[in-house]
Design goal:
Order of helices and strands: EEEEHHHEEHEEHHHEHEEEEE
Radius of gyration: 21 Å
Largest sheet: 5 strands, antiparallel
Shape: elongated
Strand content: 25-35%
Number of helices: 8
Number of domains: 2
Helix content: 25-40%
Number of strands: 14
Length: 296
């Protein structure tokens, strides 16, 4: 079967796979997918999709009561260990799972919960997490452009021409962690835009629940993307574009019926706040709290 793969920007005649550009792990709709080649799908999954739920954990903790996250653990002897949460996805998450499955990041050795006095971890994205998140929203932005234009009957040949333009091609290489040999292209991922969150959530039929929204505006010389995940993680991304599109504005709205919307719409991806949790089962002598924890 012949098909066009937006990830590698090539035509194929081999077997296709289904690429959910909004990952199913983030409650992306099962019916919204694009045909892609196996190599492209595997690469996209390894870069963002496999980590997506862990990165955007705030929307999930309300339902599961469990966390999967990296942070610092304060042990009974007062030492600090960089750790990662790790609970088994096939088990029922519990509120104490964070202490039951703590692993030392350097050695990958399990740290028994009885030795852990407390844990602290950031609310927002830090370091490489932010880069990973930007790669993911780059893929979602390009995927939504292709998906919505396909729905409008735009031919694959036109889609390929759009993605071959330098600005969009550079973003696609970034999303798939590929080397880019073209000219330098400014990549501006505008995160933390509460005005965008308010506007996109306000456009949804049900404002009381969380929504995924991808709005594409085909302007004269560029493509303007506004996106929102769970009504709380938002972004803006612009692509230079020289190929005219008749349909000026397209929008993809996906309600997440089982998760309520937050009282205040706020993008937390740039937050420097952190959460500190005391181990409810700790029975030893309390260690001294580190200075950089005291405001948590």
């Amino acid at each position: 079967m012949a098909y066009y793969c937006f990830l590698c920007n090539e035509n194929h005649v081999d077997s296709l796979t289904e690429e959910h550009f909004i990952p199913k792990s983030l409650d992306g709709p099962k019916n919204q997918w694009l045909p892609v080649c196996e190599n492209g799908n595997a690469r996209a999954n390894s870069i963002f999709d496999n980590d997506a739920r862990d990165l955007l954990y705030l929307a999930r903790v309300e339902n599961t009561g469990a966390l999967k996250r990296s942070g610092e653990a304060l042990l009974e002897d007062g030492t600090l260990k960089r750790f990662k949460f790790n609970y088994h996805v096939d088990s029922v998450p519990e509120r104490k799972a964070a202490f039951r499955y703590i692993y030392d990041r350097e050695t990958n050795m399990h740290i028994p919960s009885k030795h852990v006095y407390a844990i602290a971890f950031p609310v927002g994205l830090i370091g490489d997490e932010r880069t990973t998140y930007c790669k993911g929203i780059a893929k979602m932005s390009i995927g939504s452009i292709v998906y919505l234009l396909k729905k409008q009957g735009v031919k694959d040949s036109t889609l390929r021409r759009i993605l071959m333009q330098e600005s969009i091609n550079a973003i696609r290489h970034f999303a798939l962690d590929l080397q880019w040999s073209g000219q330098a292209v400014a990549m501006r991922f505008s995160l933390g835009r509460s005005d965008v969150l308010e506007r996109l959530q306000g456009s949804c039929e049900n404002k009381e629940i969380r929504n995924h929204v991808l709005k594409i505006d085909f302007q004269k010389n560029n493509i303007h993307v506004e996106g929102m995940l769970y009504s709380q993680y938002g972004w803006v991304l612009d692509f230079l574009n020289r190929i005219p599109i008749e349909e000026r504005e397209l929008c993809l709205k996906n309600p997440i019926a089982h998760i309520n919307a937050p009282d205040i719409l706020k993008d937390v991806t740039l937050s420097h706040d952190s959460i500190c949790i005391l181990n409810p089962d700790f029975e030893g002598r309390e260690p001294e709290i580190p200075h950089h924890w005291r405001n948590n």
